[in-house]
């Protein structure tokens, strides 16, 4: 049964979501569980931004040019992150942009314009397109519930940022995952189970599996900032402190104000079509979300946005509006053809 229009009265999570249960008031079990945990709401909340600025100064690179790697999507959030790092935090960044063959040219142009006006060095990582096509194809082909293709691809980009930090001896990486994605990553039992099934599928192609595991190697060098007290600890040699951008004060600012700031500073442009709305995700998000919606009745973005609503970063109404999925079928067919995914198998399940 398709229950996508039945949603939690608090977080908006769809009734199609795995293991969801509603109480008599229409509130889901995940909201009740979240009330018992304050991690995402308090542990990384800096009431005084100066404290965060001062805490990061001790990680400045004394033996190299750059203090921090800042991945850029070409969207407003990552753009404002770079602007603040340069203008307010007095850190020297090395910007990084991913190009896996499905990026929107407008997003890449935004990145180039921003780095030029801020005089920031930029690395554009050109991914192996054949590897990426296989990654999408194999994740789409999984018969059982698995990690979203977007989640797995995001992990590759995450590891790339750490790889760059290692190559240039850069102590910090600011990564663009949201509070919702942090919640998903912290859901260890479920993630490990899905990850295990995914690796089992990948092992059917020995060469692909070896390359995939090689790309995960930089993950061993990360120390993830989870608590304000983590900033009091010294950074071990060969490790990189990964800081989620949601700890920065600007992330709590109205997105339209941030968009206007970017438009005025470097003529920022929105991409023509993206999902969820108001984001700057690559074109492949449409096919990946289409597959997830057909197979599961929801996507990773439903889970992510529900967690963001619970954390108070966005309203339930805005989340539901952003998550409205109107698939551009011609684009989806084109992308499916490129990666060898038969979407008609999924359409029959919808």
Give the N-terminus to C-terminus distance in angstroms: 10 Å
**H/E series, N to C?**
HHHEHEHEHHEHHHEEHHHHHH
So what's the CATH class of the domain at 46-272? Alpha Beta
CATH superfamily of the domain at 46-272: HUPs
Mean pLDDT: 89
Largest sheet: 6 strands, parallel
Major beta sheet, strand line-up: 3-2-1-4-6-5
The CATH architecture of the domain at 46-272 can be given as 3-Layer(aba) Sandwich
**Count of β-strands:** 6
Uncertain spans: none
Fold-level CATH name of the domain at 46-272: Rossmann fold
Structural class category: alpha/beta
- The general outline is globular
Integer-rounded radius of gyration: 20 Å
Structure description:
By secondary structure, the protein is of the alpha/beta class. The protein has a domain at 46-272: Rossmann fold. It is 49% helix and 8% strand. The chain is built from 16 helices and six strands. The protein has helices at residues 29-34, 39-43, 49-57, 76-87, 105-118, 129-141, 149-167, 179-186, 188-202, 206-216, 255-266, 284-296, 300-311, 316-322, 329-339, 343-347, and strands at 68-71, 93-99, 121-126, 172-175, 222-224, 240-244. It has a six-stranded parallel beta sheet with strand order 3-2-1-4-6-5, sandwiched between helices. Strand 1 (68-71), helix 4 (76-87) and strand 2 form a beta-alpha-beta unit. Helix 4 packs across helix 11 (255-266), helix 8 crosses helix 13 and helix 12 (284-296) packs across helix 15 (329-339). The longest helix is centred in the middle third of the chain and has 19 residues, at 149-167. The radius of gyration is 20 Å and the shape is globular.
